[in-house]
């Protein structure tokens, strides 16, 4: 029997933030569809959560940098009426100067961090809107706000995901569908083992444990936050940034150049 909470589909679910979301949402009563590349880890997690919570857990082995695998997940999202939550968590990070980076690796990063969540959101959205409830949770990053060397592509992809979430929230306003963008800071996950900066090289006071990160993100979700930044002590700082951007809007597009550009 399906649960009353519906089914949550989580990408990048085999470890780290995705696996922790799986634990939390299972304990909240959601059935699960867990998507990742590592079948063995997915199977182990599925068995554990089914035993602990009694929810139904399905696994989908997929590499979301591959169009055929992404299409497979899109089909599930578009056709399963039980799906109530999509967590776009799968992602990767390249933190190094552009001239030194492997361009093929960067292309895969753009596909995973931008193309996949866009396509999956597009696939699930019509069903959520038709049912009048549900949520899309996009795991972005505080790196979306950091313009610095070595962050050309990763920060850009996460800035896209933040903007995507903010614009999508306006599109679905009043429909019963909730959008949330979560901006983690440095979090103790396996993503650091694949990058150029070891986690141990970071000051410990800036590294959050993954359980704390996901628990905070879900508090923000329950509070209907559009943007949740678990590390930010004063939410007013973010609101002031939004206010400053909104103050720019009347002057961003005008029929004459600004006076400083007069020849």
From TrEMBL:
Domain of life: Bacteria
MF GO annotations: 3-hydroxypropionate dehydrogenase (NADP+) activity
Broad enzyme group: oxidoreductase
Keyword Oxidoreductase found: yes
Swiss-Prot/TrEMBL keywords: Oxidoreductase
Keyword Cell cycle attributed: no
Listed InterPro entries: NAD(P)-bd_dom_sf, Sc_DH/Rdtase_CS, SDR_fam
Catalysed reaction, written as an equation: L-allo-threonine + NADP(+) = aminoacetone + CO2 + NADPH; 3-hydroxypropanoate + NADP(+) = 3-oxopropanoate + NADPH + H(+)
E.C. numbers: 1.1.1.298, 1.1.1.381
Entry-linked Pfam families: adh_short (PF00106)
Function: NADP-dependent dehydrogenase with broad substrate specificity acting on 3-hydroxy acids. Catalyzes the NADP-dependent oxidation of L-allo-threonine to L-2-amino-3-keto-butyrate, which is spontaneously decarboxylated into aminoacetone. Also acts on D-threonine, L-serine, D-serine, D-3-hydroxyisobutyrate, L-3-hydroxyisobutyrate, D-glycerate and L-glycerate. Able to catalyze the reduction of the malonic semialdehyde to 3-hydroxypropionic acid.
Family, per entry: Belongs to the short-chain dehydrogenases/reductases (SDR) family.
Name of the protein in question: NADP-dependent 3-hydroxy acid dehydrogenase YdfG
Organism: Amantichitinum ursilacus
Taxon lineage: Bacteria, Pseudomonadati, Pseudomonadota, Betaproteobacteria, Neisseriales
